[in-house]
Structures are given as C-alpha cells and as structure tokens.
Write a structure and sequence with these properties.
Length: 218
C-alpha cells in the first residue's frame, strides 16, 4: 500500500439552498506535506463544528473505493474529489475497524470514525441524492487521529498495524448511524472503542434512547 495523493484545500463560499457556507471540501494535490496533531499544514477546515479536531484530524480515502465509484460517476474520480487529505492505494484486504492504526510515511494515525455525508458533500458532487447514495454504498473512508506527527509525500509506503481487533468495523459504525432501532450490544461495543468525540456523543444519545424504550416496554 502507498500514498497516491496528498490533498489540501482552501476556504471557499458554497451556496446550499438559501444558505451560503464556508467550506474547504475542494482539495487539490500537493507533492508532500507536514502533518501535525490537528491535520495537514496548509489545509483549511472551515466548518470546525462538524469537521476537524484532534480525533478527526485527517480524512483518508482509497483508490479501491474510487474504482467502485468510477462506473457510477461516469469515470474515475480524481484524488481529492471526496475531500480527503490522503488518497491511499488501499486500506488492506480486511475490513477496517475503529482503533486500527496505519503507519503512513512519517506519521502514525488511528481510525476513529467513518465519513458521514452531508449537504456540503452533496453540493460538491452536484447531486441532490448524494447523501443517500454515499451512505448506501458503505464506502465511507476513514477519519483518523494523529498519534505521531511528521512528513508525508506521494509514494510513501503505508503499513496497516491493526489495533482495532476487538472493536466494530468502520462500516458497522456508519450503518448504525442510520439505524432507527440500533442493537444495544453493538452500541455498547462501540463505546469501548477509541471513537471520535462527535461519534461518541451520538452513540451515547442512541444508547440512551434504546435504554429508555426498553424501560417503557418493561
């Protein structure tokens, strides 16, 4: 596995319905970059309420997943199309789990959450139905926290180190996001994983609702 592209974005204004929002979703390739605990130097995270932070410092997508989208979108998307900071050749053969770690060039990262599609992403793709379509494809890419900062460049080797063997997969977390009646045991297992804080807060709310329903039925 290797780094195919390093991608950074600038802030821009985007019209979404009646709103105008600032976003850094449009990213272009750079040959190399410096990664710190909050992400890639030179990359803009405009919506800091929903993106970025220590536990969603970088977003990763793979060429294998882009290959899935090629016939769907009428051609292979360019690296950075989905707003990822790093485009990797692959994530490996086995499903990625929350807590899995990757050595990427000079950095070490840990998987914390899937990408949950939003209206900005749909506008970027110029498709009204994109949020549903992306969710149903179950190819969300990976949000990661940076455990060791350093330099990265196109062509760097990527090593998957594991670490999440006892935790649910990234896709399981994405699926539960849209589940009207999520499994209580799965929610409890997710809370034992090193989730991104935004994801953890959402899972805690889900578990509280599940527990309340169970009590009302008792």
């Amino acid at each position: 596995m290797r780094v195919v592209s390093v991608n950074a974005g600038r802030a821009e204004l985007m019209r979404i319905g009646a709103r105008t929002v600032e976003t850094g979703i449009r990213k272009g390739p750079v040959e190399r970059g410096s990664v710190h605990m909050l992400g890639l130097s030179g990359d803009i995270v405009a919506d800091q309420e929903n993106h970025g932070g220590l536990d969603q410092a970088l977003y990763l997508y793979s060429c294998e997943d882009y290959a899935y989208w090629a016939p769907e979108l009428g051609g292979l998307p360019e690296p950075g199309t989905f707003g990822e900071n790093l485009t990797l050749s692959s994530f490996g053969e086995e499903p990625v789990r929350i807590g899995d770690r990757f050595r990427i060039g000079g950095i070490l990262v840990e998987v914390t959450a899937p990408r949950i599609p939003c209206a900005v992403f749909a506008t970027r793709m110029d498709e009204e139905n994109w949020v549903k379509r992306f969710a149903e494809a179950r190819r969300p890419g990976l949000y990661v926290r940076v455990l060791e900062a350093g330099e990265i460049a196109v062509g760097d080797e990527v090593e998957r180190l594991g670490g999440g063997e006892d935790h649910p997969t990234v896709v399981e977390l994405m699926d539960v996001w849209y589940d009207a009646e999520p499994d209580r045991e799965l929610l409890e297992r997710l809370l034992l994983a090193p989730l991104a804080e935004r994801a953890r807060a959402n899972i805690e709310r889900m578990l509280s609702r599940v527990a309340a329903r169970a009590e009302s039925r008792a």
